Amino acid sequence: MSVPLIGRHYRTGLPIEVGVREGRITTITAIAELEVSSLVKPLPWLAPGLVDLQVNGGWGLDLNTAPLSPKTVLKLTRLLQEQGVTSYCPTLITNSPTRLAKAASAIAEAVRLYPDVADGIVGIHLEGPFLSPEDGPRGAHPREYIIPPDWEVFCCLQEAAEGLIRIVTLSPEWPDAASFIAKCCESGILVSIGHTAATPEQIREAIAAGAVMSTHLGNGTHLTLPRHPNYLWEQLAADELYGCMIADGHHLPPSVLAVILRMKRNRAILVSDAVSLSGMPPGSHRLHIGGEVVLTAEGRLHLAGQPQLLAGSAMMLPDQVGYLVETGLAGLADAWDCASAHPAELLGLEQARGLEIGVPADVVSFDMKDGKWSVLQCWKNGQIRP
After folding, report:
1. Residue 271 and residue 324 in contact, taking contact as beta carbons nearer than 8 Å
2. Which of 78, 146, 192, 239 has its CA 20 to 30 A from that of 44?
3. Residues 301-353: pLDDT tens digits?
4. Long-range own/partner contacts, residues 224-229 (CB < 8 A, 24 or more apart)
């Protein structure tokens, strides 16, 4: 029998004791407030593990810098677990098919070699190369590697990944994109719309073919759009689509985050879109995606020659949950669910049920003081990590 986990339930605020056996939650018992008042330290909060669908790197580790070592994947997985991220999708961005295949193969090797990685990775997110070639929607993705959706290319990448590719972000503006989306769905691949200049009609056609998500909705777009119709309204209005958002104070203003939260509700998802510079000091840097970039003291990461274009996020997932809470956009429970239960639901993970008897014991304890919070401990399948 594992040592029970004691803290306040993130949804109710009530003190509980969580019993764990063989990696699963077996009991959840209420604790009397009288017992809590006798404790020397206040109880931490207990919440389900975070699930990040879009991680490019962090702490100087880059999944998109060649050659990718399986040990890099292991280090990143363990560092994410320190942040309370118990499940994640390593994200490979636009590159040549050869380089993408090598990176996917390295991730697959890490899954085979290291149990921690196998437990933490729930699939690879392929963000590109099937994106819009247009300036604006393309974002910082290199134009020379952008190609139309190609099933043969994708199958080669999936083979290199040993079947690990779980999410594909693409633009449905390409001819025959709908047939590609349908093939992905038949193969169990989740298709997300992103970095797109598609018409509203093409967006609806993609949804009809099986697209289920919007990648960092509101970003990877033209700087100016028609009042209506446009591809943002179409995705916001589509109840079928989960809406991913980056809540770092730079990618989207609070008003847009509020609209996504209200429109998508239990299909609103927080993603870090963290790059290798997350957790690093500010300054000028060079990345595979974007080339020369600048990380400001405020945490904004942009292209050196085009400050209006962002080059990914430098804020990890728990801090983005904190941003939603601190700005009053969501309460703690709802903000946390955007980064745990909602993405887990999309992926079909049992953890979508949250803190409940019978689910895998992926649990995070954390403190909140004066609007700041810190992850204290993280359990994956009932085992404390790292």
Report:
1. no
2. 78
3. 888 888 887 888 999 999 999 999 999 999 999 999 999 999 999 999 999 99
4. 229/200
Structure tokens belonging to residue 281 = 């000091």
What is the DSSP track for 23-76?
TEEEEEEE--HHHHHT-SSPPPEEEEPEEEEEE-EETTEETTSSSPPHHHHHHH
**Sequence-ordered list of residues with C-beta below 8 angstroms from that of 9, at least 6 positions apart, any chain:** 15, 16, 45, 46, 355
Beta bridge partners of 229: none
Amino acid identity, position 27:
T
Q: Do 266 and 260 contact (CB within 8 A), yes or no?
A: no
Residue ranges of E strands in 131-219: 165-170, 190-193, 213-214
How far are the Cα atoms of 253, 286, 292 from residue 304, in angstroms, in the given order?
22, 9, 5
CB-CB contact of 275 with 301 (8 Å)? yes
Side chain identity at residue 107, one-letter code: I
Q: Taking Cα atoms as reference points, which of 89, 84, 82 lies closest to residue 56?
A: 89
Question: pLDDT per residue over 192-250, tens digit each?
Answer: 999 999 999 999 999 999 999 999 999 999 999 999 999 999 999 999 999 999 999 99
Which among 356, 354, 381, 378 has a CA at the least distance from the CA of 365?
378
Q: What does the alpha-carbon distance between residue 242 and residue 25 come to, in Å, rounded to a whole number?
A: 28
The kind and range of the H/E element at 207 are: helix 200-209
